[in-house]
Amino acid sequence: MPVEHWCVLDTDVVIERLRGKSPMFGLVDRLVEEGSRLAYSPITKIEVLAGMRPDEIDSVASLFRSMTALPVTDDIVEKSGDLLRRFAKSHGLLLADAVIAATALSQQALLLTLNRKHFAPLSPPLRLHEAEDKPSQVAERSPQWGKKGKGGKKGKGGK
Hints:
The chain is α/β, with parallel strands linked by helices.
């Protein structure tokens, strides 16, 4: 049975959190204070691990420990395949985005993203929330949202 208050974080939100700069911080804090649980797809963790620098190992581990991994179930696999069949050619939907969207859909969760255009064709039924205009510094202290990562600089090819 789906949990009504899940918030699935897109990879871009996690990356910006690790860099310590995101207009999504205020929203995430507010959702956590209202009882939402932060979650991620294993695809998000794969993407972050693939692009992290050696000095980010501890901050990445800490952030992922502060959230819940939602496993890729057979239902998510089927939803992902359906989304790709319907939107890959017409809207350029990629496999990773399809799995992240299917994960949010399977839990009836809000998907937090900094790039609405990747997911816009799926909404509705996908529930999306884009970044707010101004960041909140409250997230820097929020234990539910992990610890501020090291660094903050963009690497080669960084988003």
